[in-house]
Specification:
The structure holds 2 protein chains of 2 kinds.
Chain A lengths: L16 H23 L11 H15 L6 H29 L3 E11 L2 E9 L1 H24 L6 H20 L3 H19 L6 H32 L4 H7 L5 H18 L8 H4 L5 H10 L4 H8 L1 H4 L3 H22 L5 H21 L3 H28 L12 H4 L1 H15 L5 H14 L7 H30 L7 H6 L6 H16 L7 H6 L7 H17 L6 H26 L6 H8 L1 H8 L4 H48 L7 H24 L1
Antiparallel strand pairs in A: 1-2
Helix pairs in contact in A: 1-3, 2-3, 2-5, 3-4, 3-5, 4-5, 4-11, 4-16, 4-22, 5-6, 6-7, 6-11, 7-9, 9-12, 9-14, 11-16, 12-16, 14-15, 14-20, 15-16, 15-19, 15-20, 16-18, 16-19, 16-22, 16-24, 18-20, 18-22, 19-20, 19-25, 20-25
Chain B lengths: L7 H18 L5 H25 L8 E9 L4 E7 L4 H17 L8 H20 L3 H22 L4 H34 L6 H4 L6 H18 L8 H8 L2 H26 L1 H27 L4 H22 L2 H32 L10 H4 L1 H14 L6 H14 L7 H27 L16 H19 L2 H26 L27
Antiparallel strand pairs in B: 1-2
The chains are: A mainly alpha, B mainly alpha.
């Protein structure tokens, strides 16, 4: 499939790269240490917050300006170093912010202004954006390091890192900006990088098309975003978060609903929800680390972040919240069913991402903002691990992505196999893996909904969500067993090249992420349920975000949960995960069972529809793309050329010419005649003026 | 030394003409010398214009660098020039683009070099003159003067259908201008009747009290002239032909500056002179603007010729400018003026880029290309950035203008149905991305399928010098728009204030269809240089 995805026979440790990473990390640590020693409590670190986005931005600038001119180690040092440093900067400021209990706000300069309209380039690190910045730079650092190995032999190595750094810059702008226009800058910026990186191997027209599709589908959503900003600015007179929070309550609820729905429409583009999810599966055309970073861990979660950030507005529009919850649930289930039958390792993960994002929207839709952000974080860990794991597999299999050609890789690629398995447990929601805690918190909140959606709807949505969770467990373990268990089914030419485990520069990030996928959930334990049975451990994550979400909780009113229900639901969903795993194991382990093939035959019709993703792309083509193209051709061919130019312009020209041919008789060619005419005219004009003046 | 004492505006206006005359004296076979001279001369004019930027005072709406001279006193015609926050940046755009255009034509034009550069410099005088004139007679002369060199540029150095395109361009524009002339003469006469003294001073003419019916007719005449120039739908069909057939340099100037004179005309003449009629017409202008935005984008989508695609995209982009003007509040207007500058930079750069591949392949058909990114990577990078600038990516210039226009127009209080218009206009943001990226993909991505494209040469040093200043401007204008926006403030605020005052005066009955002006609209110090032009 992806013949570009590997460019070498075997994969020795790229010379010097490991060392470079070592020195970058060591240097960053030293800088951190020195910085902390020197600064002390009196020195204000706040004014360095701009470094977080700007470091990668500067990296992109350097590598971009001197594209292909710098040596590979230097390119690596700049690209990876800038992101690692950004991570440490985030860490330092995060700690400072939490210990002081006060958000960091820095205004860099006034970007554009007119009359009452003003947008600052300004950064805000509060508990919410702090978590996001840590996830983005942390996972981003790991993926940058991983990319050193993955892209080692690509001829466009420096271009790749330029784009990747540019992405980090945009994403951090999105997260750390203190106003909606700045978020929009990041929002569009990540869209651009996504476009550039999906079409990274642009000589392949299909990949270039996938990139363009991503950008355009995102722009459809962005239109909603922009219209929302127009209404919001008209109603409130500002787009800065703190001002919006103050004045949001003054906006009539109809307008607030419209604003929130339009913003959510923007989110369905960026975060791949119904109806705009169609770009994400195609986005897998990009290099796999890109899929991990942009199309799983960070960019696609921007919509969830946006709603959590604007929770004080969404909670003023219950109807919009309900729509968010319903769309999220439907997307979660819809994408999960498609994931059941895909054979491309990355496509399965892509639909899984769409589905998991659906879970996050379910969360924000019922007002469980902290839970959604929590799931965003744990998902970043395990999904990044899964994608990087699939990258490692593709790398080891010399570009093969079809899981029917795989099998038995656990023995050949043990590190990849184990980390992949851990992440499968995490996403499936096994106790005590991270996904268990975050997903259950969302599902519980959906079941016990007290805002936006009525209670009956909460139960319906929970059922659909549980079904989606079952599918998730099933397709993830199907993926694992088909890939890693049994015997290798690869064609001879791949076997001959030698299927191999990836170098440490790739597997170490996998291990770090797998570790996080395992323990990452422990900072968000179900406090109330535990409290009911006499265990007093706080939900650290929720407490951390409490302040940011205070206004939203105020809007939603008090909520009294039931620990018994919570325990019950936890047991049910853990059970569901186990059943999914068991079913997948019995059907696909070692690839010996013939049931899947028979099932496929028996339900050939359904299988075909689902395998072809319900023909949504085709539907969009016939419903929108073709009519618009035909209409455009009609406008050009008929209205422009024939109607306006032909009828109006040429006909009037013809009339004038005909008239002119008549008048031509006057044109005698005799200069004296002309002169006489001129004099008569001039005299008439002067007389007229003279009369006018004396009148 | 006071900058006003050296008659900066007159120097800027007539130095290009002097340069043109010098070129006329140079021997025609000395092509190198002519090119070099044009380059140096226009660059010096640009440097000189920086003095305008430096000496400009932002805090005031008054005309600055004013020069007033009697010319034909019997008719009250004077040589009156001045600059305010509305015209300043468009003048800067003109002086900035001209040397770039000259440099771009070094190798593209081989035949008739002398005449070519003569025309370009002559044209610069026409453009700057149009922008600085505060006397309607002077304005009209410069306005018509621009036509002639442009006509020759298209007709002589253009493509295969150049004669058709040149004539079409000429007649289209001429029709509009003539009606404007009629309206001007009427205004001149009425003003003379009311004040007992004839003048062509724009400032004086704005004081004329006109019956609404007359205002509407005259506004229509002015609006037609300017709408053709912009061009607004459905008066746009001269543009694709003129743009496509013109040589690269001609297209850049046409798109970069000439179109802006249409939008500028609305701001400087049509609206201040006939505010009440303008107010009635605003919904129509907004509707045509929105149709232009969507129509231009859709038609651009199905073009087969890159240059024609860029030409139609201009219809779409200028629609945004017109929407901002129709909204008539400070935010939208500043966005609109900013969008004029953006369009000059981005579309200018796009035409130059198309020119680069045209020089190499002598075709502009999209189907002739494909996969160029691999062959000419530096060109690809420039093309990409320009494309992104054109589709309004935040961080680059295009976004600032569009964003301000959209946010500003949406909350316009004087434009009926402003919200509907603006929401429709926002589809242009999407459509722009579609036609540009689709074109980019077909030209630049994929495998190289056409043998002729295999050995294309990447940008040479001269082409770097042509494109780099534009790219730098895209970033600067995208990252620090306030530098430019603050220069417009006073003038734009003044324009809006007077527009609203006249509307209020009319609705309150203070400004009936009486012959005497009842409200004091502006102040004038005849001897000094304090002149306020609404």
């Amino acid at each position: 499939m992806s013949h570009h995805d590997h460019g070498h026979e075997s994969a020795p440790e790229p010379i010097g790269m490991g060392k470079i990473v070592f020195w970058i990390v060591a240097g960053a640590l030293a800088a951190l240490f020195i910085g902390l020693r020197l600064s002390g409590p009196a020195v204000n670190l706040d004014r360095w917050i701009f470094l977080i986005p700007l470091l990668p931005g500067f990296g992109a600038l350097l590598n971009g300006l001197f594209l292909n001119k710098l040596s590979k180690p230097l390119v690596t040092a700049i690209a990876v170093g800038s992101v690692v440093f950004a991570f440490f900067a985030s860490l330092v400021l995060f700690v400072a912010m939490v210990s002081r209990g006060e958000a960091i706000h820095q205004v860099l300069y006034n970007w554009m202004a007119a009359e009452t309209f003003a947008v600052n380039v300004a950064f805000l690190m509060d508990p919410l954006s702090g978590v996001m910045a840590l996830v983005v730079t942390g996972v981003g650092s790991l993926i940058h390091i991983y990319s050193i190995g993955y892209m080692a032999h690509d001829e466009s190595y420096s271009r790749y890192f330029t784009y990747l750094n540019l992405f980090m810059f945009s994403m951090l702008l999105l997260v750390l900006g203190d106003s909606l226009p700045l978020m929009f800058v990041g929002w569009e910026g990540v869209g651009l990088c996504s476009y550039l990186l999906i079409g990274f191997w642009f000589t392949d027209d299909a990949k270039a098309s996938a990139g363009k599709k991503a950008f355009i589908v995102n722009r459809i959503g962005d239109m909603g975003f922009v219209i929302a900003l127009m209404i919001l600015f008209w109603q409130v007179g500002s787009l800065q978060y703190d001002v919006l929070a103050e004045r949001a309550a003054t906006v009539p609820v109809e307008w607030m609903t419209a604003i929130c729905l339009l913003l959510f429409f923007g989110a369905t583009g960026k975060s791949a929800q119904i109806p705009l999810y169609v770009w994400l599966p195609d986005a897998m055309a990009g290099p796999t680390p890109v899929s991990a970073l942009i199309h799983a861990a960070t960019m696609v979660t921007a919509g969830v972040y946006m709603i959590a950030r604007l929770s004080f507005m969404f909670t003023l529009a219950p109807t919009a919240m309900m729509v968010v919850a319903v769309v999220g649930t439907l997307t979660a289930l819809f994408a999960a069913t498609i994931g059941l039958f895909q054979y491309d390792i990355k496509k399965v993960l892509a639909y899984s991402t769409v589905s998991q994002l659906g879970f996050m929207f379910m969360g924000v839709g019922v007002g469980a903002f902290a839970a959604a952000i929590f799931h965003l974080m744990t998902h970043a860990f395990f999904k990044a691990c899964l994608f990087l794991g699939s990258g490692s597999v593709i790398h080891g299999m010399h570009g093969e992505q079809d899981i029917r050609q795989m099998g038995g890789l656990q023995k050949i690629m043990p590190y990849t196999g184990w980390t992949f398995l851990i992440s499968c447990f995490a996403i499936a929601g096994f106790f005590p893996f991270s996904g268990f805690f975050s997903k259950d918190e969302i599902l519980y909140n959906v079941f016990a909904t007290h805002f936006g959606s009525p209670a009956w709807l909460g139960v319906v949505l929970w059922c659909l969500g549980a079904l989606a969770a079952f599918c998730t467990s099933f397709y993830m373990f199907r993926l694992y067993y088909m890939t890693f268990s049994g015997e290798l089914r690869a064609p001879e030419e791949i076997k001959k090249k030698g299927v191999h485990e990836s170098p440490f520069v790739m597997t170490v990030p996998l291990m770090v992420l797998a570790f996080l996928a395992l323990v990452g959930g422990w900072i968000g334990l179900p406090e109330h349920a535990l409290h009911a049975v006499g265990i007093h451990i706080p939900n650290l994550f929720e407490h951390h975000l409490h302040e940011v979400l205070a206004r939203a909780h105020e809007n939603m009113g008090p909520h009294h949960g039931s620990p018994a229900v919570e325990w019950g639901l936890m047991a049910v969903s853990f059970g569901i995960a186990i059943v999914g795993w068991f079913l997948a194991r019995s059907l696909y382990k070692d690839n010996t069972s013939e049931v899947p093939a028979r099932m496929k035959e028996k339900f050939a019709g359904i299988h075909k529809v689902i395998f072809n993703k319900y023909y949504v792309d085709e539907g969009y083509f016939y419903a929108f793309i073709r009519p618009v193209l035909n209409f455009s051709k009609f406008l050009w061919g008929f209205v422009d050329t024939y109607l306006i130019d032909g009828m109006l312009v040429h006909v009037s020209a013809w009339v004038v010419r005909t008239f002119g041919e008549g008048v031509r008789l006057v044109q005698t060619g005799n200069v004296q005649t002309y002169l006489l005419g001129f004099l008569v005219g001039a005299a008439a004009f002067l007389i007229y003026l003279w009369q006018g003046a004396t009148m | 030394m006071n900058l006003q004492d050296i008659h900066l505006l007159s120097l800027l206006t007539f130095l290009p003409l002097l340069g043109a005359l010098i070129i006329a004296l140079l021997p025609g076979e000395e092509k190198g010398m002519i090119r070099l001279f044009s380059m140096v001369w226009t660059s010096l004019i640009f440097v000189l214009s920086l003095g305008l930027l430096a000496g400009f005072r932002s805090g005031t709406a008054e005309m600055q660098f004013v020069e007033v001279m009697e010319w034909i006193p019997q008719f009250g015609i004077g040589y009156r020039v001045g600059v305010d926050g509305i015209s300043l940046l468009i003048i800067m755009l003109t002086t900035f683009l001209t040397p770039i255009v000259v440099l771009s034509a070094f190798s593209a034009v081989e035949k008739g070099v002398k005449g070519f550069f003569f025309s370009i410099l002559f044209l610069e005088t026409g453009m700057i003159g149009t922008l600085v004139a505060t006397d309607v007679f002077l304005f009209y002369i410069f306005w018509e003067l621009m036509l002639i060199p442009m006509y020759f540029l298209i007709g002589i150095w253009g493509g295969d259908k150049r004669i058709y395109a040149a004539v079409k361009f000429f007649i289209y524009t001429m029709v509009g201008s003539l009606l404007m002339l009629v309206a001007l003469i009427y205004l001149y006469v009425v003003h003379g009747e009311q004040f007992g003294k004839t003048t062509t001073d724009l400032l004086e003419l704005t004081k004329t009290a006109l019956p609404v019916q007359a205002q509407i007719l005259m506004f229509a005449a002015f609006a037609l002239a300017f709408a053709i120039k912009v061009p607004m739908w459905p008066f746009h069909t001269w543009l694709p032909d003129a743009h496509t057939e013109a040589p690269t340099a001609g297209s850049v100037i046409l798109a970069g500056v000439l179109l802006k004179l249409g939008t500028y005309g609305f701001l400087r003449f049509a609206i201040p002179l006939f505010p009440v009629a303008a107010h009635y017409a605003m919904p129509i202008l907004a509707a045509l603007a929105v149709v232009g935005i969507i129509y231009g984008a859709l038609v651009a989508m199905v073009q087969k010729d890159v240059k024609r695609l860029v030409a139609y995209s201009s219809v779409s982009h200028l629609g945004f400018c017109m929407l901002g003007i129709a909204a008539m509040n400070v935010q939208a207007l500043e966005g609109s003026i900013y969008q004029m500058l953006n369009h000059g930079i981005s579309t200018g750069a796009l035409f130059l880029i198309v020119g680069v591949i045209y020089e190499r392949r002598h075709t502009r058909l999209i189907s002739e290309f494909g996969g160029l990114s691999k062959v000419i990577p530096a060109f690809a990078a420039f093309f990409m950035i320009t494309t992104l600038s054109s589709i309004g990516l935040p961080g680059l210039n295009g976004f600032v203008g569009e964003f301000m226009i959209l946010l500003g127009s949406f909350r316009s209080e004087s434009l009926p149905y402003a919200q509907v218009f603006t929401i429709l206009a926002s589809t242009g943001v999407l459509l722009g991305a579609i036609y540009m990226l689709w074109m980019f993909q077909r030209v630049m991505f994929g495998e190289v399928t056409n043998e002729k494209n295999k050995d294309l040469k990447d940008l040479n040093l001269r082409e770097y010098f042509v494109l780099v200043p534009l790219i730098l401007m895209m970033f600067f204008m995208g990252l620090y728009p306030n530098y430019f926006l603050r220069k417009m403030d006073a003038s734009v605020e003044n324009l809006v204030k007077i527009y609203n005052a006249k509307l209020v005066a009319r609705t309150a009955g203070v400004l009936p269809d009486s012959p005497k002006p009842m409200v004091k609209l502006s102040e004038l110090e005849r001897d000094g240089r304090k002149i306020v032009i609404p």
